[in-house]
Amino acid sequence: MNLELSEEHRLLQATVREFAAREIAPAAARLDREARYPAELIARAAALGLMGLMIPEQYGGAGMDGVANVIVQEELARASAGVQVIVSVNNSLVADPILRFGTEEQKRRYLPPLTEGRSLGCYCLTESSAGSDAMALETRAGLRGGEWVITGRKLFVTNGVEADLCIVYARSEDVPGARGLSAFLVEKSFPGIQVGKVEHKLGIRCSSTAEILLDDCRVPAENLLGRRGEGGKIALATLDGGRIGIAAQAIGLARAALEEATAYVSQRRLFGRALRDFQATQWALADMATRTDAARLLAYRAAWLRDRGERCTREAAVAKLIASETAMWATHRAVQLFGGYGYIQDYPLERYFRDAKITEIYEGTSEILRLVISRDVLGSKGTARP
Amino acid sequence: MAAGAGLSEVWVLVAHEGGAVRKITSELLGKARALAGGGRVVAVLLGAGVPDPARTLGRRGADEVILVDDARLAHYTTEGYAAALAHLAAEGPPALLLIGSTAQGRDLAPRLAARLGAAVVTDCQSLDVADGALVATRPMYTRKAIGTVRLGPGQMWIAVALPAVFPVPAETERTAEVRSAALPAEIRIRTRVVETRAIERETVPLTEAEVIVSGGRGLRGPENFPLLDALARALGAAVGSSRPPVDSGWVPHDYEIGQTGKTVSPQVYIACGISGAPQHLAGMSGSKFIVAINKDPNAPIFQLADLGVVGDLFEILPRLTEAVKRRKAVG
Amino acid sequence: MNIIVCLKQVPDTEAPIRIRPDGTGIDETGLNLVMNYYDEHATEAALRLREQFGGTVTAVAVGPERAREALRQALAMGADEAALLRDPQLDGADHLQVARALAAFITPRTPDVVICGKLSTDDNAAVVGPALAEVLDLPQATAIARLEVDPNRARATVHRELEGAVEVLEVPLPALFTVERSLNEPRYPSLPGIMKAKRKEIAVMDLAALGLSPEEVGSPGAVLERLTSPPGRTAGVQVNGAEPEAAVEAIITFLSERAKVL
């Protein structure tokens, strides 16, 4: 067993940390306030290779592993969870399933633009009556004249406004549940797809969240991703990777809270003593550091398993569950340590706090994750993987 | 070399510009005299058509001036100066050569040391002789530590000293004897000085600036930042800000010092109209000295300031800039 | 164009340092070590010259095993080759000895340009660059803020920032330059660059491999005896209710006598 990051992982970490500190962090508060998509930052992220970091070089990616992805997403989220989620969705929910399930032709056509920042992707699964129960979705796809025709309404689509390429899950087979679903590569330029309502959110405000409306949207037959009826499998396999990305996002937020709080309590004086000298403060910092460490190692484990081609559904769920609850708890704790300064927008704490909440909701709520984990626990008589 | 009473001979390279001897030279002559005790202090003056400096240099402590007046030394060049000093040292090297830490001094000293096989130490803020060795202290790790460096006996020493650390000695009635020396006929100077143009100094990077002049909400608007620019130019300082001016778009993001901006530790931090929110203090409380100017006597910045001035920065800053300029002109 | 860039790995300037209790140096435990940031600018300058004129960029560092990471960064930024000069005799070497080791590596490679950072942020000495130029017998320009090489590659025109002035120098090539941060904006190593760098070998050379005898490297003429913390701040003085002129006078006195920057 070796828990040390490799030399290229450390170089990657230093590079992305500097990029995030210099380019993203200074803009983060403004992007949040204005809820504006950071097109220029995303272009710079793409130039660095961040938009397709696990995609092999022959498709324009960096060819890095999943552990590298966790490192990158944590560093980006440390600066801005909003910017990070834009990058993470492109990597984990769009480029990754194309790589895993796409035909050679699909990979050649779609991966280079996605990795080079010429195109942005989004993942269209959730519907108004199919959120946590995603496999009950009602968007329909049928073959008509050699083309797929898709009709339905997708909700809460991250990157929905800016994306050029949507992976749309729809019911193509007359079978209920996961087996009736297929995945489709739908370009925004195809006839019959448009952006619906754009949401106003509590956090991650510089990323867009929108409705995607499909009304007899015509999709060439060759844009079926994977096989017919394989959509449910693709959606779930994709979510394993996505959850690791969100775990990394939550870890970045928890670390942001910890680092800001550490700096603050070293400065702030109360009743003639530095805030850092109070045991209540020290214990809060210790707990924040402990939980963040635990979450990070669990995220590394999930990514490492996935890199080895092993099933990691339970481990990804464990990582996201602990990371997201840590992020929520740590940002909440840090706001409290800051007192009034934690509540006002002159300081980033309230932004971290708002951003953290979504990590407990998207790509599997904490409740769904507990369901996933408990099923595995019960199914395997409780024996955890070593 | 080092006798108990002092060093037998200490040379000081004279820094001059436009016919005037720079202040650092006087500081070094004072230090040279202290280290030499009864030994000889020699000022080495390199140039072309420089005015007779014997009186000035003598008054500050030189026993002798070695003057090399040669057209090839009209401009400073690394190779011209290195050749001249190496030539002089070949006739009898001093125990110690002191050079001021200027752009030219830093350019020259290491090269000369490598040529002469001398030991060199730069950025000295103290210099002493102990047990036959030269002992220097110097800031290291971006001023987060002070290093004590020992240059052992049996070799020539070259020390590059920081400006403004050694006091200018009181004037004496001494007049130095002037000895002219010639450069060898053949010296190689490969670089050519195309021109030297005076400029408004470009902004020094904040994280390495000696002096930082920083503004906060108290500046009231972007139109008042030129007050800081002017003071910074006069001081050779960098300009920074606390967070409100950045958030208000008065200055670019890279100005920001604080928890969400840069961490700085200059020799002096001059905080103008900055109240001293913890977010800001996190980035600058490592400064060696802090001067704060603020209207509010209860501003938290005053709790950290070595010198706190309660007053109107719009009245103080322009006068301060003029006073600094006068002061530098005299120096 | 054959370009050599000299690097050093140093503690991150943003991080606090801990001095060892015995004062012999700093405690590197948990310390974030990075490429000296002036050297990032040196690497950028080297890469830009290669982009303009073709050729190769070779990065070289003197240091312990961990200095590989700085070299790896240079490779990831785009350098073609890298070498680490490592020898027990170089532990505790002074700057002139480091310059001799670097020169032994550089001389057989007959460079057109050698580029160093203006100084390294650990010991702030700014000695290795000019000393190396002397050992290599190359003309030098230090702390340059601008660099242009003529199309024939015969000479460079550089700007040096002096106190309150800019000096424009013409330097025939081959030459050695040390660079100021304002020279350029270093690129980040790209992710594909990091992966390419991973596949490259970093040559490790000891003094024997450099063809240097222990006598040629010599013993250090300058030795760091100890490190101490800078003195703490004394209690503040407040000037209140003074006329502006008196306030200015107080500040001037403080700047010259206490802070010694005037």
Question: What is the CATH class name of the largest domain in chain C?
Answer: Alpha Beta
Strand-residue fraction of chain A?
A: 15-25%
* Class inferred from helices and paired strands of chain C: alpha/beta
CATH architecture of the largest domain in chain C: 3-Layer(aba) Sandwich
User: Given the helix and strand composition of chain A, which structural class is it?
Assistant: alpha+beta
- Count of discrete domains of chain A: 3
Q: How much helix, percentage-wise, in residues of chain A?
A: 40-55%
CATH topology group of the largest domain in chain A? Butyryl-CoA Dehydrogenase, subunit A, domain 3
Quote the average pLDDT of chain A.
95
Helix content of chain C: 25-40%
Q: Give the helix tally of chain C.
A: 7
What would CATH call the architecture of the largest domain in chain A?
A: Up-down Bundle
Q: What is the CATH T-level topology of the largest domain in chain C?
A: Rossmann fold
Give a structural overview:
The complex is a heterotrimer of chains A (386), B (331) and C (262). By secondary structure, chain A is α+β, with helices and mostly antiparallel strands. Chain A is built from eleven helices and ten strands. In chain A, the strands form three sheets. Chain A has a four-stranded mixed sheet with strand order 1-4-5-8. In chain A, strands 2-3-7-6 form a four-stranded antiparallel sheet, with helices on one face. In chain A, helix 6 (231-267) runs antiparallel to helix 7 (279-307) and helix 6 packs antiparallel against helix 10 (349-358). The longest helix of chain A has 37 residues, at 231-267. Chain A is globular. Chain B has 331 residues and is α/β, with parallel strands linked by helices. Chain B has helices at 23-36, 54-59, 78-90, 103-116, 225-235, 243-247, 278-284, 313-330, and strands at residues 2-3, 6-7, 9-13, 16-17, 20-21, 40-47, 64-69, 96-100, 119-124, 126-130, 133-140, 145-151, 157-161, 177-180, 192-198, 211-215, 238-241, 268-272, 289-294, 307-310. A seven-stranded parallel sheet of chain B has the order 9-13-8-3-6-7-14, with helices on both faces. In chain B, strand 6 (40-47), helix 2 and strand 7 form a beta-alpha-beta unit. The longest helix of chain B has 18 residues, at 313-330. Chain B is elongated and about 65 Å long. The mean pLDDT of chain B is 89. Chain C has helices at residues 37-53, 68-77, 95-106, 128-136, 191-198, 214-217, 244-258; strands at residues 2-7, 9-11, 33-35, 56-62, 81-85, 113-117, 140-149, 155-162, 165-172, 175-179, 202-205, 222-228, 237-240. The termini of chain C are far apart. At the B-C interface, helix 3, helix 4, strand 9, strand 11 and strand 12 of B face helix 3, helix 4, strand 7, strand 8 and strand 9 of C.
